[in-house]
Amino acid sequence: MNILELKEFNKEHVVYMYQPEGRGEYGEIVYNFENAEAVVVKKAEDESERYAHKAKKKVEECVKKNNLPIKVIQAWC
User: Fold this and answer.
1) How many separate domains does the chain show?
2) Which domain holds residue 6?
3) What is the pTM of this model?
């Protein structure tokens, strides 16, 4: 599970913070509208790549759907 929170949104990019399992420090993902790409700019502390990858994909999905929620709880099986 990830908790994603919108940190910043402007015409150039959108920034989401993500927190694996709702614990520890947040990581940060930036989606750049110019090149249509999300990048993990800061990994959350003590996390596997799986959480960052899932959060990155969720941010890309939200942008594609033109739906940028303030807070998202991302769960998977």
Assistant:
1) 1
2) 2-74
3) 0.93
